[in-house]
């Protein structure tokens, strides 16, 4: 109810961006939805053909809600930043973290752990907010993203700045008095990027 009132568009924007970047038919792709919450992102991914969805979240109550959607093949409890993801290395074709990369939530230092569980050539879809109280975190996150790119761990596919991300909860947080805050979708592809097979 809260996210509906806030016109929260991140799950829709993230799923659309990932589906756009994803070269293969998504039905057979194994995807990990990190900080999956109640399954808002899964609903959007499912609409775009992703069928093999696994989710992790730090809240047992959220996981119960996610389970009730029937969209996940597997759900596990994990607090990212405090413990490793419950998955082997190079296991997923895609990993999403939507709405949890922010001040007081998942630390930016957890990003390499997302890369660890992604297959070479796999995609990572991350989002964060650009409102005033999250700018310090956003700068830390972007420094981490850039550093991993410079190390050759992944390559940038897409960075989409979105003005009307969600309604602002206060005037101070609002972007230039619009009543909304802005946000960003990042899509990266893990290196080495495997060339497409000739069919």
From TrEMBL:
<protein>
    <submittedName>
        <fullName>MET27 protein</fullName>
    </submittedName>
</protein>
<dbReference type="InterPro" id="IPR029063">
    <property type="entry name" value="SAM-dependent_MTases_sf"/>
</dbReference>
<dbReference type="Pfam" id="PF08241">
    <property type="entry name" value="Methyltransf_11"/>
</dbReference>
<feature type="domain" description="Methyltransferase type 11">
    <location>
        <begin position="32"/>
        <end position="125"/>
    </location>
</feature>
<dbReference type="GO" id="GO:0008757">
    <property type="term" value="F:S-adenosylmethionine-dependent methyltransferase activity"/>
</dbReference>
<dbReference type="InterPro" id="IPR013216">
    <property type="entry name" value="Methyltransf_11"/>
</dbReference>
């Amino acid at each position: 109810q809260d996210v509906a009132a806030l016109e929260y568009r991140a799950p829709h924007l993230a799923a659309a961006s990932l589906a756009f970047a994803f070269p293969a038919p998504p039905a057979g792709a194994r995807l990990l939805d990190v900080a999956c919450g109640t399954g808002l992102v899964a609903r959007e991914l499912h609409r775009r053909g992703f069928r093999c969805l696994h989710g992790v979240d730090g809240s047992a109550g959220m996981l119960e809600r996610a389970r009730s959607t029937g969209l996940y093949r597997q759900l596990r409890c994990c607090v990212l930043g405090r413990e490793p993801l419950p998955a082997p290395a190079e296991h997923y074709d895609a990993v999403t973290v939507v709405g949890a990369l922010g001040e007081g939530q998942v630390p930016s230092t957890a990003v390499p752990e997302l890369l660890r569980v992604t297959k070479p050539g796999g995609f990572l879809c991350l989002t964060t907010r650009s409102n005033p109280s999250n700018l310090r975190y956003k700068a830390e996150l972007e420094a981490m993203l850039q550093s991993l790119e410079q190390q050759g761990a992944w390559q940038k596919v897409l960075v989409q700045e979105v003005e009307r991300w969600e309604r602002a909860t206060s005037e101070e947080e609002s972007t230039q008095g619009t009543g909304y805050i802005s946000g960003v979708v990042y899509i990266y592809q893990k290196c080495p990027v495997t060339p497409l097979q000739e069919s």
